[in-house]
Amino acid sequence: IAGITQAPTSQILAAGRRMTLRCTQDMRHNAMYWYRQDLGLGLRLIHYSNTAGTTGKGEVPDGYSVSRANTDDFPLTLASAVPSQTSVYFCASSDSAEGNQPQHFGDGTRLSIL
Amino acid sequence: GQNIDQPTEMTATEGAIVQINCTYQTSGFNGLFWYQQHAGEAPTFLSYNVLDGLEEKGRFSSFLSRSKGYSYLLLKELPMKDSASYLCAFSDSNYQLIWGAGTKLIIKP
């Protein structure tokens, strides 16, 4: 079934640890995105990639890094986790980065930093 | 600046019609999206409007007025399964989506 796969589904992590959230899509979409969703707030963009080999910073990039070595994969890394990074993380993709194409979302990763 | 606003929560009766409003302010606009998100699940795409007017898609309709910075999502013949959060988002001048906090729709029998 075509779509976006995120892993892990959930994780409890000690503060200060490094963590990589994985995201893979099989729709050959050019653009990919990482969001965090917190209670009472809208989805906030962390980083994005308009095409393989390029990345950009979103609204809340501090403490996070991404890479886009190929079309399918877009991992998000927390170099040294802090409790304020406790959130639900969604990866999404769209056919183009022109803002007129719907974004398709993975099932999310629920991350708790203690 | 940019902002987007929608009601936090609404209640409706099964089988009825409900309208969820969304207002926004931005200097650059490339369309407005509506998504549905059930609790604990991913958002799923419902509609996209870039021109003024009403777009109808089965039980769902979405309206846009660019001059007023206003959109609404209309849901008809509400089944219980439509209990979910409804997210509006506009595409800004950089083609990034700016999201509202979502409207939680509670449907009662």
What would you note in describing this structure?
The complex is a heterodimer of chains A (114) and B (109). Chain A has 114 residues and is an all-beta fold. Chain A contains no helices and 11 strands. In chain A, strands 2, 4, 5, 6, 9, 10 and 11 form a 7-stranded mixed sheet that branches. In chain A, strands 1-3-8-7 form a 4-stranded antiparallel sheet, with no helix packed on it. In chain A, 38% of the residues are buried. The model of chain A has no long low-confidence stretch (mean pLDDT 95). Chain B has 109 residues and is mostly beta strands. Helices cover 0% and strands 57% of the residues of chain B. Chain B has strands spanning 3-5, 9-13, 18-25, 32-37, 44-49, 53-57, 60-65, 70-75, 84-91, 97-99, 103-108. The relative contact order of chain B is 0.34. Chain A binds chain B through residues 40-45, 48, 58, 90, 97-100, 102-108, and chain B through 4, 30-31, 33, 41-45, 48, 50, 87, 89, 91-92, 95-102.
Structural descriptors:
heterodimer; A: 114 residues; mainly beta; 4-stranded antiparallel sheet; 11 strands; 45% strand; B: 109 residues; globular
Euclidean distance between termini CA atoms of chain A: 35 Å
Q: Bin the helical content of chain A.
A: under 10%
Radius of gyration of chain B: 13 Å
Radius of gyration of chain A: 13 Å
Q: Tell me the greatest interface.
A: A-B, 20 and 23 residues
